[in-house]
Structures are given as structure tokens and as C-alpha cells.
Design brief:
- By secondary structure, the chain is of the alpha+beta class.
- It folds into two domains: 96 residues; 100 residues, Immunoglobulin-like.
- 39% of the residues lie in helices and 30% in strands.
- A hairpin with a 2-residue loop joins β1 and β2.
- It is rod-shaped, with a radius of gyration of 56 Å.
């Protein structure tokens, strides 16, 4: 009628608690963190540059600031050099424009001179070189000349020669005399304009001048004309 009796355990401090176990996910998390930290340390030690000390960092920063200051200085110099280069290019362009205008003006003046020379009356005496016109004036004790010469068959290079002025007039004593002035070297292509002055004897009053064009001093005559002095 009654079952088999079982022994009853007496626990003076109450029921014993079961032992606590750490969750598996927490173990995995801590293990992964440790592995990651170790990997970072290994990579830093083996593959990355060594970490700088405070003194090395200060030196590196100072070097960087010096290099940056030098870069800014060079950049400023580059800007100034660029401005000077642009100014030089603008000046060169201006000078080129002025040169072009000067050449055009010179060509125009040359054409005008050719037209004026062609319109001058011929030299009555003719010759290889003709004295087409001019003016002789006395300025103090000097004879100023302004003469236009032309040359026939002027093809080829200019021809060299000399101009000799023989001046007839009255000396300081009142007597008639002739003075031969210093020869003037010349080079003539199709035409030549001669301007200058030659000294006269003191007190000499010129009346007329014979203009002789020679191939050399005391050489062959290429042309001659007599003109009155003014």
C-alpha cells in the first residue's frame, strides 16, 4: 500500500545554485578583439614605418614648415616672373608694331623721295652722275651743302666715288680767288642726297661753286655742275 520510501536530503543553507557559465557570443567577441589588436600590433611592428618620437615629430614639423615657406616664396617669385614675362611680351608686341609702322613710313618716304628726284630738272651737263639740284649756303666760315645726285644705269651694287667742291669768290683781301675744299666720299645707287658743311678760309666770301663727282680723288670725272652760292 505504501511505496518505497526515499531518503530526504537536508540542506541547511537552502538549495545549491548551479555554476554560472560565460555566454559563447561574449567569448567569441573577446577573442576576436584580442586577435584584432594583436594583428594591428604585428602590422605596425613589421610592415608600417616606426612611430616617431616627440623630438623627431617636432623636427619633421619644422622641416615641413620650412619647405612650405620655401614653396610659397617660389610661388611668389613665379608669379612675379610670369608678370615680367607678360610685360616683356607686351613690350615686344608694341615694339614690333612700331617697327612695322616705321618700315611702312620709311617705304612711303622712299617712294616720295623717288618721286621728288624724278621730278627734278636734269643736269644740263649730263654725265654718268648728274647733279640734279641742291643748295649751297655760307654759314659763318663754312660752306653748307645740300645736293641731290642721280646715276644712270644704276642696276647692281652702289658705286663709290668722291665729291670735290671748288669754290670761287673773294678773299679777305678783296681779290678773286678759288678754293678747293676737302673731298667728300660718297656711295651712290640710283640716287644720293648729300648734306653737310666744309670749312672755308677766314674772311672768304664765296660766289659760286663747281661740284665735281669723281671716281676717286684727282680721278676720272663722272659728273659736274656749277651752282651759285646763297
Amino acid at each position: 500500500m505504501f511505496g518505497r520510501s526515499r531518503p530526504v536530503l537536508f540542506e541547511p543553507y537552502g538549495r545549491r545554485r548551479s555554476r554560472w557559465h560565460m555566454p559563447r557570443w561574449l567569448v567569441l567577441l573577446l577573442l576576436g578583439t584580442a586577435i584584432g589588436a594583436g594583428g594591428v600590433v604585428i602590422v605596425q611592428q613589421r610592415y608600417l614605418p616606426p612611430r616617431l618620437s616627440a623630438d623627431a615629430s617636432a623636427k619633421l614639423r619644422s622641416a615641413f614648415e620650412a619647405a612650405d615657406a620655401e614653396r610659397q616664396r617660389l610661388q611668389a617669385e613665379l608669379g612675379q616672373t610670369t608678370q615680367r614675362h607678360q610685360a616683356a611680351l607686351a613690350e615686344q608686341s608694341r615694339l614690333a608694331d612700331e617697327l612695322t609702322a616705321s618700315r611702312a613710313s620709311a617705304d612711303q618716304l622712299r617712294d616720295d623721295l623717288n618721286s621728288i628726284v624724278a621730278a627734278l630738272p636734269p643736269d644740263p651737263r649730263g654725265g654718268v652722275v648728274e647733279v640734279r639740284g641742291g643748295r649751297l649756303t655760307t654759314k659763318g666760315s663754312a660752306l653748307a651743302y645740300d645736293l641731290v645726285l642721280t646715276r644712270e644705269r644704276a642696276a647692281g651694287k652702289p658705286m663709290a666715288g668722291v665729291m670735290q667742291l671748288v669754290v670761287a669768290g673773294e678773299s679777305a683781301r678783296g681779290s678773286e680767288t678759288t678754293v678747293t675744299l676737302k673731298p667728300v666720299a660718297l656711295s651712290i645707287g640710283s640716287h644720293a642726297v648729300l648734306r653737310g658743311s666744309l670749312p672755308l678760309p677766314e674772311g672768304f666770301r664765296p660766289r659760286q661753286t663747281t661740284i665735281q663727282v669723281l671716281d676717286r680723288v684727282a680721278g676720272k670725272s663722272l659728273g659736274m655742275r656749277v651752282m651759285l652760292n646763297k
